[in-house]
Queue: 2 jobs
Job 1
Amino acid sequence: MRRAPGKLCLNRREITVKDAAQLTGALKGNKSSAHILLVDDDASLLRLLGMRLESRGFHVTTADSGRMALDRLAIERPDLVLSDLRMDEMDGLALFQEIQRQAPGLPVIILTAHGSIPDAVSATRQGVFSFLTKPVDRDELFTAIDEALLQAPAASDGDDAWRSAIITRSPQMERILDQARMVAGADVSVLVSGPSGSGKELLARALHDASPRADKPFVAINCGALPEQLLESELFGHARGAFTGAISQHEGLFQAADGGSLFLDEIGDMPLSLQVKLLRVLQERQVRPLGSTTSVPVDVRIISATHRDLDRAMHEGDFREDLYYRLNVVNLRLPPLKERAEDVPLLAKHLVSQAAARHKPFVKGFSTEALNLLASSSWPGNVRQLVNVVEQCVALTSAPIIPEALVAQALVAEENALPSFNDARASFERGYLIKVLKITEGNVTQAARIAGRNRTDFYKLLGRHELEPSSFKAVAKSDS
C-alpha cells in the first residue's frame, strides 16, 4: 500500500511517525503486556515475528494455521490477533470471519506479502482493524497494535471487577461476557434469556457494573412473583388513596432506579395490561404513579430476563410485539450448566469455600471423585441447584474433604426437594393437559371444554408446553 512520506496508513486515519512514537510511549507499561495471538503458516516468520513482539513485552501465543488459532482461542481469549492473509485451508479473512462469530469485537490485524488495494478494502470493510504489508515496518506494526488495543479496552484493560461474581472458564460464557462488556456502554435495552437458575440476574448486575451507570442504583424485581395490582404499584408507584390500603404515597421502582438500571426478571410473566403501561413508560421516559395526575421524568436503563421463549409468546399473542422489540435490542443467551461442564468443578470449589467460611471453616473442599460426580451430573436446576447441593454437603459433612457418597446423597435429596411455585405450576399444567388430551384422544374442542378454556387459550397452553394434539390420536389408536 502506498503512503505519504513519514506517514503510516491505518484503516481509519493517518498519523505521523512522531505521533506514533509518542503514542507508543504513552501506552508503554499499560498495554505492552497484552496477549497477542500470532498466526502464520511460515514457521521461520512465525518465530521471528514472535520474538520481535516478545522483545516489546507482549505475551505471545503462536499458531501455524487458522484451525490451530481457533483451538487456541477456545482455550484463552487474547487481546488481539495478528494473522497472515495467505494460508492453506483457512486464510486470514476466513479466520477473521470465524473470530467475529466466536469473539465479537476482538481486534484483528492482517499481514500479507501479497498486499493490494482490493484486499485492504475488502478486509477493512468486513471489520479487520488494520491491513499491513510485509516486510512490516517495526514502527508501523507497533503503532497498529497499540491503536487496536486502545480500541478494545474490554479485552486489554485488565479490570474484571464488573464480572467478579461470575465464575467461569467456559469459552461460551466468556463470549457472552465479552458481548455484555461491549454493550454495557451503549445504554440500550438488553434481554437476558436462559433457563431458570442459570444466573440471569448475576449477568444483569455485571452488565450494570460495567456501564457508565455503575455508581447509580441497580434495582431488581421478579415480574412473576407479584399479583398484577401490586406489581403495577411496585413498578410505577402510587399516590395516597389510590386504592384501598394506600395510606401514603409510594415511590415506584422506576423512580428508585433513576439514573441507574432496572432489572425486570421473568418479564414473560408480566400481564398484558401491564405490558401496555410499561411500553408507554419506555416510550415517554416518564412514569405516572397510580392515582396521580402528574408524570415524573425517569432516566432508567432496562435489563430484562426470561426463561420463556418470548418470540413464541409474541406470535401466540401472550407478549406484545412492540414491547418485545423495545426490550430485545440486544439478546444475551445464557447456556444451561450442563453445556458448561468445565465450570462445575470451578464453581463447586468457589461455593464450598464460601459455605465453609459461613458454617464450618474446617471444610477444605471436595474429593476428586466427588468433583467428578458433580461435573458429570445433568443439573436441571442449573447453578441454583449446584448452590443447594454444595450447601447441603457442607452442612452434613464432618470431614475436611467432602466424599463422593455425600455428594450422591445430596443430589438425590435435591431431586426429591419441593420445587419452586413456578416449576410446580408448569409441571401441573403440563400433566393436566396431557391427561385431558389422552381422555379426548387429541380432540382439542373437547379438551378445552373439559379444561374450561376457550380454544384459543387452550392452543396457547399447548404451545407453551410443546404438546401436539395429533400425537395423542396416534397414542389412542395404538392403545386400542
Job 2
Amino acid sequence: MNRVVITGYGVVSPIGNDRETFLTNLKQGNHGIGPIQQFDASETGITMAAEVKDFPLDKYFVKKDTKRMERYSLYAIYAALEALEMSGINTEDEDMERMGVMIGSGIGGLGTIQDQVTRMDAKGPGRVSPMFVPLAIVNMAAGNVALRIGAKGICTCTVTACASGTHSIGEAFRNIKHGYADVMVAGGAESCINKIGISGFAALTALSNSSDAARASIPFDKDRNGFVMGEGAGVLILESLEHAQKRGATILGEVVGYGATCDAYHMTAPDPEGDGAARAITLAVQEAQIDPAEVNYVNAHGTSTQANDKAESKAIAQALTDNAYVSSTKSLTGHLLGGAGGVEAVATLLALQEQFIPPTANIQEVDPEIEANIVVNEAKETPVNYAVSNSLGFGGHNAVICLKRWEA
C-alpha cells in the first residue's frame, strides 16, 4: 500500500482565489456573503449568496473559453492549474498515463440548462446551441482539466450532491494507495447561483431568507434558518509518497483515511441520529489507524440548516471525543454544493499547516441542542495533528476524509 501525500492545492472561493487571500480571510473570519449580483433575484425571495469576486480569468484563459466552458469548469481548471504550479510537477517529465483527474460536481452546467431551455421554449428546438450538451454535462470539469494538463489516467466525476468533492478526493486517495495512479488531481467545483438554482433550493425551504449578510450563514446558531448558496472550486494534487520524494517535492500534508456511507433514510433530510455520518467518520479514523481522541479538528459540513447541524453534531459526538474542535467554514464561504468538499479540504489542510482552527463566524448563541465543541467567531491557535472534513449530501451520501499534518 502506498502512503498518499498532498503537494499542491488551488482554490476559487467567495473569500479568495489565491492562498494568501483565502488564508487571511479564513483566519480572520471574514465572510464572502452579500446581495446576489449575477441575476435579478427579487422574485425568488432570496437576497444573499456567496459569489466569487475578482476571478482572474485572464491568467489562464482567453475570451473564447467562456463560450466553450461553463463557469464551474473554468473554476476547476483554474484551481487545478494553481495546484499543479504549487506542486512543482512538470508534466513533460511525468508518465501521464499514471496521472488521473477526479473532480466532482453536484449539478454542473445549470446556467446553460436554464438558458438553453428558455431559448428553446421561446425560439424552437432549432435554436438550441450545439454546445449545450458539452457545457451542461457534469463530468466536463474533470474532462476539461484532463484535456488542459494532458492527464491520461483515470478521469471521473463523482456526483453525490454536496458530498461530491470529498468523495472525489477520497476515491483519488484510494487510487494512489492501491497503486492505480502516481498522481491525482482531485476536488470539486460548482457554480449554480442563477435563477433556477436559487429558486429550486428556495422551493425546498433549504436557503436562508435573511437579508443580513452577517446573519445569513450561521451554522450551529440557534437562529439558523437555511444555507447560503456559494460557488467556486477546490483542488488538491495527491501523490504517492514515493513519487513525491523521488522528485524532491515539498509535502504539505498527508491523506490517511476515507469513509463513505449512506443513510438510506430520506431523499433530502439526514438521519436525525447522525448514524450514517458517524460511521463515515469512524471509517476514516480507522483507516488512519488512530484513536478517535487524536482528531484535533473537524471541518464540519455545517450547512446552517436546522436538520443538518443537529444531526451532524450527534454524529461527531458519537464518533469522536471532546478533544476535537469543530467549525464550519460555510459561515464564510456559503455552501458550494459539489464544490464544498474541495474548498473545505484546502481549509482543513491549512488548519494543519498553520496550527489553527478556523472560526464559525457571526454566531450569537450556539443552539443548546448542538453537542459538538464549536469554535465560534475567532480562530483558535492550537496544535492540530489530525483533522477530518465532513461532507453530507442529499440522497443520504456521507463522505469523510482524514488528513495528517506533515512533519519532515
